[in-house]
Amino acid sequence: MPELEDLQSRQLPQSLEAEQSVLGSMLIDSRCVGDVVGILKPEDFYLRQNREIYETIFRMFSFSLPIDVVTVLGKLKENGYYDEAVTPGYLRQLMEITPTAANVKHYAGIVRDKSLLRALSKTATDINEMALKGEGTASTILDSAERKVFGLRRGNADDALERIGPIMVKLFDHINELAQSGSEFPGLPSGLHDLDKRINGLNPSDLIIIAARPGMGKTTIALNIVANVAKATQKTVAFFSLEMSREQLASRLLSCESCVDNYKISTGRLEDTDWEKLGMATAALSKTDIRVSDNPTISVTEMNALCRRLDNLGLIVVDYLQLMTRADKDSRPAENRVNVVAEISRALKIMAKDLNVPVICLSQLSRAAEGRTDKRPLLSDLRESGAIEQDADQVIMLYRDDYYNPNTAEKNICECIVAKNRHGESGTVKVQWMPQFFSFSDLDAVHGA
Fold first, then answer.
1. pTM, rounded to two decimals
2. Residue 92 sits in a domain of what CATH number?
3. Side-chain half-sphere CA neighbours of 347 within 13 A
4. Does the residue 3 lie in any domain?
5. Residues 382 and 238 in one domain
6. Together in a domain, 246 and 99
7. Cβ 428 vs Cβ 242: under 8 Å
8. For residue 6, is it within any domain?
9. Residue 422 belongs to what domain range?
C-alpha cells in the first residue's frame, strides 16, 4: 500500500526501545542518573509517558531524593502522572526489558540523537516557511536560519522555556568546577589582574564596553586582552577591526609581545637584540589562534555568522561600535544614528548570549568631558546612545591624566573606571601605560620588576 508506506516513511525519528532502556537503567541502578541528566532533557523523550517518568526522576535527582521503583511511583502519583491500571506494570516492564544499566550512556545517546533529528526536521520546516513567505530580506532570513541551526548544534532551542531544575543542576556543576579550580575569578583572564578581580574576569555571554576619548588606548588594551586570552586559554579569539588594517594590528601585537619600540618596528631601525626579541614574539603569537578581520563595513549579523563556524571560540572583540552598520544597511539609510547604534548594541548582546562567549566592544565617548574641569568620563558620555549602557554587563572607561595635564605626578598611569559592573562593585583600577610598546600592565608588575 503506497499510502501506508509513505506515512511510515514520514514518521518522526524515534527509538522507543532506547527511551525505555534509559528509564529502566535508572530504576535498576540510581547511580547512573547523574550521567543521564547531563545528556537528556525531558523534552528529548518522544513518548509522553516516558517523558513524564523521566521528568519525575529528573526532579527527584535535583532535590537529592532516593530513586527506585517505589519512590518514583510515589512521585508520579504526586505529580498527577499515575494510572493504577497502567503505571506500576509499565515501570516493572521497563526494568525487565533493560538488559543492563552499564550501557545507559549509549541508550541516552540514541535518545538524544533522535531528538535532535526531530528538532532538525521542525527547524527545516520553519526555515522553508520563512523563505516562502518572504518576511524580511534574504540577509535577515538567512541570519535567522543560521541562528536556529546553530541553536540545535549547541543543544539550545531558541523558543524553549527551560525548567529551573536543570538550570540549577548546571549551576551547581559550574560552582563545583570553580571550587575545584581554585581560581580567583570565574571568567577568562584579561592579563590585568587587578581589573580581573574587579570585574570577575571576562565571563561568557557578557557584553563588555571599553570606552574612551580618542588617544586613550582603547585599541591597545583590547589587543593586550586578545593576546593574553589566546595564550592563556588556547582558545580562538576573533578581532574585528573597522578602523585599522590587519598589518597595523599585527604590528601593535608584535610590539607588545616583544617589548620592542613600535617606532623601530615601523621604520625597520632595529638592533641585533631587537631581531631576537621579534623572532621569539612572532613564534609565540603564531602558536595562538587569533583571527583578524579588517572589513570596515561588516555587520553584527555577518560577525555572528563567521564566529558560529569557529569550534573553540573564547572571545570576540569589536573595534569600534560607532563605525558599525546594520545588516540591512541599504534599506533605511536616513534613519536616526542613535536608533542605529541602539540596535547594534542590542545585537552585540544577543550575539554574546547566542555564542556564550564574552564580547568586548570598544566605544567612543562624546566631547562632553572636554568642557568639564574634571575630565574623567561618566556613563552619560557614551556617544550616540543610552542603550549601550543598558545592554552592557560591564562598562570600563579609560582616563589618562597626563593626556590633559603634562605635569601630572601620574605619568603613564591609566585609570580603568568600571562605571557599570553586573558582577560586582564599580570603582577605579589603575594600570601602567607603556606607549612605546602599545602595552598595559598591572602597576605592581612594573614597580616590582
1. 0.65
2. 1.10.860.10
3. 24
4. no
5. yes
6. no
7. no
8. no
9. 186-447
370 φ, ψ (degrees, to nearest 5): -65, -25
Residues classed as catalytic? 243
Q: Kind of pairing, strands 427-434 and 313-319?
A: unpaired
Q: What does the pLDDT profile of the chain (449 residues) look like in tens digits?
A: 444 344 444 678 889 999 999 999 999 988 888 788 878 888 899 999 999 999 888 888 866 788 898 999 998 988 888 888 888 899 999 999 888 888 899 999 999 999 889 888 888 888 888 888 877 777 777 777 777 777 676 555 445 566 777 777 777 776 776 667 666 677 888 888 888 888 888 888 899 989 888 888 888 888 889 988 988 888 999 999 888 888 888 888 888 888 888 778 877 788 878 888 888 888 888 888 889 888 887 878 778 878 888 888 999 999 877 777 765 554 445 456 677 778 788 888 888 888 889 999 998 887 877 778 888 888 887 765 667 777 888 999 898 888 888 888 888 888 898 988 888 788 888 888 887 788 888 887 544 44
- On whether both 177 and 227 belong to a single domain, the answer is no
| β-strands 236-241, 313-319 pairing | parallel
Residues 269 and 365 in one domain: yes
In a domain, 358, yes or no: yes
Residues 6+ apart with CB under 8 A from 116: 152
Does residue 157 share a domain with residue 103? yes
Cα dihedral 144, 320, 226, 208 in deg (nearest 10)? -70
Residues 162, 241 within the same domain: no
C-alpha cell at 312: 573553540
